[in-house]
């Protein structure tokens, strides 16, 4: 890892610390729930313990660089087609907790965000992640790719866009909130099978697209054999793994400490990078010996 930043070749003051140094410091902040000033002192102590006389970014540098940080999210991948498990949830930014709000009413200013993740069923690593405002549902209309400072609708289609085109997707498993035309069309466009239960009041769609035809087949099958048997037959129960992964995201903190939207995006992405690292360390490697 390179701690000092390489010259940018542009005019003006050059950055002192690389993105890896900033991400390492923010990783310590996320892991131990510290403030920026505490993070600076903690990283400085760690470097001193391992005998490195490196300069440490101060709290204002961490705050400024966090806004534009390109977080590196590692993943190992797996052999064969990718089976993606998708889920969404909300995370608190400002305001009291749910219990205090129900008990005492809470304040009027309660802000939260939506996080959307897609994990690899085999490796359990997060392969796609999106961060949006609370107005965005699980499966809204498809928006174009925009900078992260713009809070446009984004969920399942944008999660699929994060998977490289050369990566084959075998199936996409999600809950009934994703039972929309745009989601089924996006899944069919990647040549994947949609494992999404139809809503209870679902009606057949006009079979004008491949996604609509596949969804109508799911609807007919679930009505013929029953929703319980269809879930067991299709393997929809595997979606519980992404719910467990979402719980792990919350274990790193029930709320976000950043107040600016761009910094909140970076904080969430750092959590994703931390969880993928933990997943890789906790997965055993099995080798067959003669």
TrEMBL record:
InterPro entries: Tn903_transposase, Tnp_DDE_dom, Transposase_Tn903. Residues 2-96 form the Transposase DDE domain. It comes from the Bacteria. Signal peptide: none annotated. This is Transposase DDE domain-containing protein.
């Amino acid at each position: 890892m390179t701690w000092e930043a390489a010259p940018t070749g542009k005019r003006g003051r050059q950055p002192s610390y690389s993105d890896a140094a900033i991400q390492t410091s923010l990783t310590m902040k996320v892991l131990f729930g510290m403030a920026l000033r505490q993070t600076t002192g903690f990283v400085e102590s760690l470097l001193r313990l391992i005998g490195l006389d490196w300069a440490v970014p101060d709290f204002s540098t961490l705050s400024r660089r966090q806004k534009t940080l390109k977080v590196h999210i590692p993943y190992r991948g797996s052999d064969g087609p990718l089976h993606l498990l998708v889920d969404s949830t909300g995370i608190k930014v400002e305001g009291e907790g749910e219990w205090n709000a129900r008990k005492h009413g809470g304040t009027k200013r309660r802000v939260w965000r939506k996080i959307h993740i897609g994990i690899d069923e085999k490796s359990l690593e997060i392969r796609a992640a999106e961060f949006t405002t609370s107005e965005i549902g699980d499966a809204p209309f498809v928006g174009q790719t925009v900078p992260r400072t713009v809070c446009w609708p984004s969920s399942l289609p944008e999660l699929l866009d994060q998977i490289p085109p050369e990566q084959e997707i075998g199936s996409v498993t999600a809950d009934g909130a994703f039972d929309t035309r745009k989601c089924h069309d996006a899944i069919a466009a990647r040549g994947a099978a949609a494992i999404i239960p139809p809503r209870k009041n679902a009606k057949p769609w006009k079979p004008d697209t491949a996604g609509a035809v596949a969804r109508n087949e799911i609807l007919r099958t679930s009505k013929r054999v029953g929703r319980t048997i269809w879930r067991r037959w299709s393997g929809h129960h595997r979606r519980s793994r992404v719910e467990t992964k979402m719980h792990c995201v919350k274990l790193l903190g029930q709320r976000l400490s950043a107040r600016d939207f761009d910094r909140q995006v970076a904080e969430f992405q750092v959590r994703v990078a931390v969880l993928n690292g933990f997943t890789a360390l906790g997965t055993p490697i099995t080798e067959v010996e003669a």
